[in-house]
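Backbone-to-sequence.
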């Protein structure tokens, strides 16, 4: 992308520096800790977030930063950075190379800059509002594949009724869609939609730092994002469908069927 904004340049630099930390710890005997929600945190998560926050706060001292490990910090601002220092920590901690650094800048509840970096493949995805999506400096677009050739991922939630919805989708969607999977890393899943490697992702209720950057990648690559009901989606809603747009309405119908089965709205 020509004429990158200062914000995007800083986000890319922060992601790359954080990536160096993840490379250092990947496939080592890194100590795992468990949070109250049973999710994993490692030393790499903490060090990655620390360097990202340092780089961003030095460049933009008046901005706020929402990090997975440290919460909201900085001055109250209309500009808020949403940072996941290691999205896919469980993959990372177990030596599975599907994890990423995810950094997004949100202004007045609109994602305006987004970066997702997977150090394992040296793949850096980035987008600016109204300027397209890029992978390692090459502009990318969503695929045109239909349901008969599609790969759809479903990102789970911790709520019981959403677990039921998740299991129902895993059981029934393969009868309609070519392949249904879960990579355990929302940022990577959304990034892969933007480059045509996947066709859709169904989000059932994660945190904003998990998906903020990825939603911009999908939108700017020509994809479609709606609520689970097919209505216009707005950040920070955390239940949505992101797709290449080809069979989006079909996914909306399938989710409606599953909700009717388990008796939820």
């Amino acid at each position: 992308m020509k004429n990158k904004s200062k914000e995007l340049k800083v986000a890319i630099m922060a992601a790359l520096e954080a990536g160096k930390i993840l490379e250092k710890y990947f496939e080592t005997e890194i100590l795992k800790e468990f949070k109250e929600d049973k999710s994993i945190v490692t030393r790499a998560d903490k060090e990655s977030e620390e360097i990202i926050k340092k780089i961003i706060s030095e460049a933009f001292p008046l901005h706020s930063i929402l990090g997975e490990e440290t919460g909201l910090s900085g001055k109250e601002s209309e500009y808020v950075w949403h940072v996941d220092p290691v999205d896919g920590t469980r993959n990372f901690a177990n030596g599975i190379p599907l994890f990423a650094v995810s950094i997004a800048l949100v202004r007045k509840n609109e994602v305006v800059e987004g970066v997702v970096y997977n150090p394992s493949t040296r793949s850096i995805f980035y987008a600016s509002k109204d300027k397209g999506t890029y992978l390692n400096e090459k502009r990318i677009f969503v695929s045109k594949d239909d349901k008969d050739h599609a790969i759809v991922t479903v990102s789970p939630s911790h709520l019981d009724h959403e677990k039921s919805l998740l299991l129902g989708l895993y059981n029934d969607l393969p009868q309609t869609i070519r392949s249904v999977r879960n990579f355990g890393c929302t940022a990577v899943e959304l990034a892969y939609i933007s480059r045509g490697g996947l066709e859709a992702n169904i989000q059932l209720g994660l945190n904003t730092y998990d998906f903020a950057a990825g939603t911009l990648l999908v939108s700017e690559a020509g994809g479609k994002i709606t609520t689970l009901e097919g209505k216009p989606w707005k950040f920070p809603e955390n239940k949505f469908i992101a797709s290449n747009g080809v069979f989006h309405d079909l996914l909306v119908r399938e989710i409606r069927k599953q909700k009717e089965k388990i008796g939820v709205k």
